[in-house]
Amino acid sequence: MSATERQDNINLLKKDLETARVQHRAAVAAQQAAQRQTSEAEKQINSLVSRISRLEEEAGEQMVGKLTVTDHAVVRWLERKHGLNIDSVRQEILDNGTASAIKFIGTGKVVKDGLTLVIKDRVVITVAPMNKGAITL
To answer: What's phi and psi for 130, nearest 5 deg?
Structure first.
């Protein structure tokens, strides 16, 4: 290889070296930008997690503040604390006249003792205040 060829080869390699350095600087800059974006995303995630945690804690505290008792629990309380006999109440609701009316209508409303029994498929599903349009016993 001649001296000129060697010099040309060195010049080409130097040019390639400069191109590689430019590419490296660009890659480092891109990496730094990605690290900044990652850092910002992590901050946003942490902030959102904190906000969610605070809101969940507040919701939990509010739920504790809004305690409730189910109807089932009230019925059991009346039975066990106050001696209410639920079976006798059922018998009072379903006396012979009421039972006949329920069998007759199947689904509808029956007035008994100033209250409306709401019937669905021959089952008393609730008791409501007096209602027009119901069968009166």
So the answer is: -50, 140
β-pairing, 115-120 with 123-129? antiparallel
Q: State the Cα–Cα distance between residues 95 and 85, nearest whole angstrom.
A: 16
DSSP for 84-108, written as a single string: --HHHHHHHHT-HHHHHHHHHHSSE
**Model-wide pTM > 0.70:** no
- The amino acid present at 82, given as its one-letter code, is H
Parse the chain into domains and list their residue ranges: 1-66, 71-136
Name residue, tokens 């006396």.
95
The answer on pLDDT for 20 being more than 80 is yes
Q: Compute and round to an integer the Cα radius of gyration of the chain.
A: 41
C-beta separation of 109 from 131 below 8 A: yes
Count of positions (residues) in the chain: 137
Query: Beta partners for 112?
Result: 115
Q: Which residue has the tokens 């009346």?
A: 78
The yes-or-no verdict on residue 96 having pLDDT over 90 is no
Answer yes or no: is pLDDT of 92 > 90: yes
pLDDT at 68 over 90: no
